[in-house]
Structures are given as C-alpha cells and as structure tokens.
From TrEMBL:
It holds the Pfam family adh_short_C2. GO terms for molecular function: carbonyl reductase (NADPH) activity; L-xylulose reductase (NADPH) activity. It comes from the Bacteria. The lineage of its organism: Bacteria, Pseudomonadati, Pseudomonadota, Alphaproteobacteria, Hyphomicrobiales. This is SDR family oxidoreductase. Belongs to the short-chain dehydrogenases/reductases (SDR) family. Keywords: NADP. GO terms for biological process: glucose metabolic process; xylulose metabolic process. SUPFAM superfamilies: NAD(P)-binding Rossmann-fold domains.
Amino acid sequence: MKISLDGQTALVTGAGRGLGRAIALALAEAGASVVAVARTADDLESLAQEGAGQIQPLVADVLDTAFYAQIEAMERLDILVNNAGGNKPMPMVDVDDATLDWMLDLNVRSVFKTAQAAARRMSAQGSGVIINMSSQMGRVGSPRRTVYCLSKHAVEGLTKAMAVELAPSGVRVVSVAPTFVETPMTKTMFSDPEFSRFVLDRIPMGKLATAQDVAAAVVFLASRQAGLITGESLAIDGGWTAQ
C-alpha cells in the first residue's frame, strides 16, 4: 500500500538536522511540498538541495511570535510536524532557573504556540494533521532527565486535549514517542560504555531507533491511511515502555 502525500503542504520545525531533517525528506519523498523551519540557513539550504525541489527553507525561531503569524498566514497547511525541542541532562537537584525556563519555553510553550497557530489555519480550511514530537520520556521517568520528562508528559497531554477539541473541525492531532535515536548528536553520548549499557539494557529489541524509523511513522500518521487515528501516541521505542 503506497502512501502518497501528493498535493499536500507540510511544515516541519527543527528541520535543519537530525530527526527533523529526516522527516522533511521523507515527507517530500512521499509527495508533500515541505516548508522546512530552522534557525541556521546553511542547514536549510543543503536540505533544500536534497529535497529535489519539494522543500522550501524558512529561517525562523520557534520562540518568536512572528513565526506563529507566518503559520496563520499560510495559504494552506495540511501537515504540521512540531519537532523542535531540546534537552540539557542533569540531576534534578542541580537544575537552575535558566535551564528550567529554556526547556519549558522550547519544549512546551513553543510546541503549544506552533500547534495553536496551525490549528487556526487548519480549522479554517476544515482539515489537517498536527504531529507533535514527544518521546518515550513522555511515558516514563529517567535519571538526569526530570525536566525533559516533565516537558514531554506535557506534550502527551496537549496532544490528547487538542485531538478532542479539534476533531469537529476535521483536524487530527497525534504524537510520536521515540526512544534514543542514532544521530551524530547522540554518537558522543553512546561512546560512554556505561550510558550505552544503561540504554540498551532497557530496549528489548536491543538497538536504538534510527531517524528513518521515526520519519516513516510520521509519514504514515500524516497520511489518509491513518485517517481515524487521533489523540494517540505512537511509541517507536523497541519495547522500552512495554515493560
């Protein structure tokens, strides 16, 4: 069963690198016209070159109120992938106010505001899919990730509440919840044998997710084949949260 997103417009935040980049490319390959959002122009330019004319770069900051106005002003928006986010692992007792505020602003406030702007655009046209990037840490707890877990539990709750509220407008809202993903950024983390063992011992399938694993799930959830799926979170975690 071939998934086609031909004729649809998607917006992906945090699209310059890692998961966001893989997602933008996968949506473009499925036929969508993709607006790729990141703060670094060079990353977006190279992404657009890879996207074979299907990817339009947009240099913007997801914490900037002007960005939300740009979303509402789009002629059409069929798919939002609310992917931008970040983490600063540290013991809970050491979290300072600046770190707390930064993570809550990026992982919760910007996710809400971006989704809110997209919901206004989609409700006006009577259709759309909002896909929030969550994490397995939105279902469980983990040491040194207290604020990250807090923020991703918030994303899971937001997804459910938005799904219920927006369903009458023809808008679906879902989330994806990956385990640790193999990217250039996480490579240094897994060079620590103790940390690597901590993670892999908790994944029954014994391996990390890839960016392509997550991107494939996003493409499916954005498609007509997932037309009755809303308010749900798809775990891509090799069984971590099944235990």
